[in-house]
């Protein structure tokens, strides 16, 4: 599993739309914009505890959804497989020539397109 900050960001990117507008806003302000609970509370007119409760509930929803669907974990596994394939193709490109090298370069080009899509 990636670092906790990256993991939270990925959960938010994948499942953020499942949260209420307030949960999304506070979660984003705290974790992505790095605002303190006090700063969010002051601008929202509620207590720091109220802000923390909303953020904690939002994170629980995101984690529970990931437990049920596993989309983020599958996405990460697929990315790791692609990195491995790309690495092996680059090694193969260096030890082949002719038609095999051309084919390897073509596959690497397609992988690059896939990663950008």
Which key features would you list for this structure?
117 residues; mainly alpha; Arc Repressor Mutant, subunit A; 2 domains
Tell me what you see in this structure:
The structure is a single chain. This protein is mainly alpha-helical. It has 2 domains: 4-69, Arc Repressor Mutant, subunit A; 76-116. It contains 6 helices and no strands. The chain has helices at residues 4-15, 21-32, 37-44, 48-69, 71-95, 98-116. Helix 1 (4-15) crosses helix 4, helix 2 packs across helix 4 and helix 3 (37-44) crosses helix 4 (48-69). The longest helix has 25 residues, at 71-95. It is elongated. The two termini are 24 Å apart. The model has no long low-confidence stretch (mean pLDDT 92).
Provide the CATH topology of the largest domain: Arc Repressor Mutant, subunit A
Number of helical segments?
6
**CATH first level of the largest domain:** Mainly Alpha
Task: Tell me the count of domains.
Answer: 2
Q: Roughly what fraction of the amino acids lie in strands?
A: under 5%
- Taking all Cα atoms into account, the compactness measure Rg is 21 Å
CATH architecture of the largest domain: Orthogonal Bundle
Shape: elongated
Number of strands: 0
Major sheet size, sense and barrel closure: none
Quick one: CATH superfamily of the largest domain? Winged helix-like DNA-binding domain superfamily/Winged helix DNA-binding domain
How is this fold's topology laid out?
Blueprint (H helix, E strand, L loop, with lengths): L3 H12 L5 H12 L4 H8 L3 H22 L1 H25 L2 H19 L1
Helix pairs in contact: 1-2, 1-4, 2-4, 3-4, 5-6
